[in-house]
């Protein structure tokens, strides 16, 4: 017997076999390159650390579709991450349904990576990923108390100073109806503590407006939270019933015109905050990863911008820039979403 694996852990079966009998890569026979196949550009890659979810948010049917949380052993995740970095990936985007719950289902089992037994815990995984020398970006983190420890890794530059936390709402009564994880945590105080520990922390989140029963007072609590928390990047959705979701049966659905009006107020409030926060970057130097290069210049992202969902940096440069390179850029202008600047320091 080589290993014991759990349901859906196909990769761990293969990984155990490959550990016993390392596969030889043959460029003439293998259809798949040595580093595997990615659907993202060469310089960044998504790293899925678990499947499924133990939470039961009332607007969501993912646990019904994908089942409960099934975490991959740490060593297996790290071997994939190592292969990606060796193949030229500069940025790893850690994803799952609930990244901060990583390992809870496998009782934080230890596995051997780089001559050390490491526990399948959120912090240990972030720490190990930080040893690879690539940008490590954490998505779908919930504000559980143990998340605070990761701030040290961010402050020391091991992990990007970026947290994607889908808060979904700020009113405790709405969060209760949503059955959100970590809804009892003192979110605002946590945000302030994190900012004090990591001065250049970027916080991204998503919210739902017009959740069944949302009163004007509850919506105002959400707007007040936005103003106080000053999140950097925010997405907003109007609540829509999803077939099979328990929230559909909740009382007092919010009329469409009220949802639309709250959405507009939410977006106006946040746009002003985002613009103010981005403006603070004007005059600073930022490390920028280049995503594309065209006749009009290059487009990249700072450490505070995830691909696809956050803002961009339009980069002018006297020398040709290459996709995937990380360059220093002097930021010269900002609007509500994007930055402009010139590559410097070469
Ligand atoms: S919305 Fe809630 S239930 Fe759905 S995947 Fe996210 S944490 Fe799990």
Bound ligands, each once:
iron/sulfur cluster
Main-sheet strand order equals 11-12-13-15-14
* Stretches with pLDDT under 50, minimum 5 residues: 26-32
- What value does the Rg take, in angstroms? 21 Å
Counting H and I runs of at least 4 residues, what is the number of helices? 9
Oligomer: single chain
Structural class: alpha/beta
Shape: globular
Report on the architecture of this protein.
With about 350 residues, the chain is of the alpha/beta class. About 30% of the residues lie in helices and about 20% in strands. The protein has nine helices and 15 strands. The protein has helices at about 10-20, 60-65, 75-85, 120-130, 150-155, 170-180, 185-195, 215-230, 255-280, and strands at about 45-50, 50, 70, 90-95, 110-115, 115-120, 135-140, 160-165, 200-210, 235-240, 285-295, 295-300, 315, 325-335, 340-345. It has a five-stranded mixed barrel. A three-stranded parallel β-sheet has the order 1-4-7, with helices on one face. The longest helix has 24 residues, at about 255-280. It is globular. Residues about 25-30 have low confidence and may be disordered. The structure holds iron/sulfur cluster (SF4). Iron/sulfur cluster (SF4) binds near residues 53, 62 and 98. Iron/sulfur cluster binds next to helix 2.
């Amino acid at each position: 017997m080589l290993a014991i694996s759990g349901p859906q852990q196909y990769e761990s079966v293969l990984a155990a076999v490959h550990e016993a009998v390392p596969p030889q890569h043959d460029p003439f026979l293998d259809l798949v390159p040595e580093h595997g196949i990615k659907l993202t550009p060469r310089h960044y890659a998504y790293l899925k650390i678990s499947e499924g979810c133990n939470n039961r948010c009332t607007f969501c049917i993912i646990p019904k579709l994908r089942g409960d949380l099934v975490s991959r052993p740490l060593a297996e995740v790290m071997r994939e991450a190592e292969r990606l970095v060796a193949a030229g990936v500069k940025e790893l985007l850690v994803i799952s349904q609930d990244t901060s719950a990583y390992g809870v289902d496998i009782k934080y089992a230890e596995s051997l990576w780089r001559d050390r037994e490491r526990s399948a815990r959120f912090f240990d995984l972030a720490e190990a990923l930080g040893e690879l020398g690539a940008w490590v970006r954490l998505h779908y983190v919930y504000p559980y108390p143990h998340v605070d420890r990761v701030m040290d890794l961010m402050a020391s530059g091991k992990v990007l100073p970026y947290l994607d936390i889908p808060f979904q709402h700020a009113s405790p009564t709405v969060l209760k109806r949503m059955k959100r994880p970590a809804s009892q945590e003192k979110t605002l105080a946590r945000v302030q503590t994190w900012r004090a520990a990591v001065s250049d922390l970027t916080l991204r989140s998503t919210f739902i407006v017009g959740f069944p029963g949302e009163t004007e007072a509850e919506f105002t609590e959400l707007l007040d939270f936005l103003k106080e928390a000053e999140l950097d990047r925010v997405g907003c959705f109007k609540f829509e019933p999803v077939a099979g979701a328990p929230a559909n049966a909740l009382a007092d659905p919010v009329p469409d015109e009220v949802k639309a009006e709250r959405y507009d107020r939410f977006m106006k409030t946040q746009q002003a905050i985002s613009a103010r926060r981005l403006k603070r970057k004007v005059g600073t130097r930022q490390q920028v990863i280049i995503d594309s290069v065209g006749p009009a210049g290059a487009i990249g992202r700072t450490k505070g911008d995830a691909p696809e969902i956050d803002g961009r940096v339009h980069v002018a440069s006297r020398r040709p820039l290459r996709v995937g390179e990380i360059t220093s850029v002097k930021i010269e202008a900002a609007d509500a979403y994007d930055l402009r600047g010139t590559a410097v320091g070469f």
